[in-house]
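Our preliminary data section would be incomplete without showing what the modeling component actually yields. Below, a chain of 445 amino acids is followed by its predicted structure, encoded as tokens that our downstream tools consume directly.
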Amino acid sequence: MALTGLEIFKLLPKKNCGECGIPTCLAFAMKLAAGQAEIDACPYVTDEVKAELSEAAAPPVRTVTIGQGEKAVKIGGEVVMYRHEKTFFNPTLIALYLSDDMPAEEVDRKIEEVKLASFQRVGQTLEANLLALEAKSGSLESYNSLISKASKINLPLILMAPVEILEKVIPDQKGRKPLIYAADLENYEKMVSLAKENNLPLVAKGKSLDEVSELTEKIKASGFKDLVIEVEAQGLAANFKNLVLIRRAAIEKKIRSLGYPALTFAFDPQGNEWKELINAAVQIVKYGGIVILSSLAPWKALPLFVLRQNIYTDPQRPLQVEEKFYRIGQADKNSPVLITTNFSLTYFIVSSEIEASKVPTWLGVVNTEGLSVLTAWSAGKFNQDTIAQFLKKQAMTDLVSHKKVVIPGYVAQLKGALEDELPGYEVIVGPREASEIPSFLKNWS
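Predicted structure:
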């Protein structure tokens, strides 16, 4: 059971030096107990105390890293049930399933779909994270062939195979740090030995929560902790219930035996892809660490990627773009000047509509601390003063030969006040909706 903040405080050096970045040792102890700080941040704690506290100070859901290099991904590390309480840290990993008994044409098609399922949204790249490769044929040659084919796209792997096959393929793959699948109550000793020897994360799989808990305790006793857990698929409702119970047990009850990220399969038994999409969406929302799908065609991938992005965007820290003038197309001295806020979603929607218009334009982005137009206006962060200061600071008159400025239609009431702030400027009220920007710009004179 995890230690309380006061219990941790008794073990700290009590210097109140602030070198950990937190003013007092008591406050630091409380952060450790909540899983919001790392014991290594204290430069004076002894190795003995560090070892004692490492378990208590760890996040309730263990952080596990899969893969190496720029494509390496993390799951777990969560400290709250609901993102408004703090935030969620590591987004659900979405994986494509392939097996070595699939026809070569089907494997090629599914891999090609993963390549196509890459999208840009509000400045982020949305794409799949993992390939789950299963050795169903029992042939080492077939499995190696599948791994070789999958390696053509640079994604971390989940290697799903019996111990005998894993022992033969891992020497060539351990540099990529794959997740190996799966330990159960019968084979866990061999699987743990293989994982420890090669420093690889491991899936612990059981038929029920109790079985998974028992298994993780046995594995933990051997000194191995880099686990992902799976309760065998039992239908949408049961899977949903298990995922919620796992998260609640780890975070609210501090049950360490279930304090690991969860792996799930979204497959529909009848092969219905729409039901698979629904299953995956539910598992992303509550609280899948890895969700494995049978296919990732763009039509299926995009809504899941967007759902994941929305959930794992910190609601307390709006996505922002840099305050400046953005040149869209071959904007020159005669091009129109539009003004908006630096909320990422606002910027990317407005800029995409300007690009669609084919009219070269200067887009001025005012720093509103990541708030949208109406929200920023209501908060007093997008008004005649901030816009005027922005235009002067960014030297609009160096970019264009005119003094015409287009403001969003939703803040039309700023027109008069802004013209008072900027004598000689003509303030034009633009469209209320971004979708109206192309027709507005095509009539620009």
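The longest strand covers residues 93-99. The chain has 17 helices and 17 strands. Preliminary results of this kind motivate Aim 1 of the renewal.
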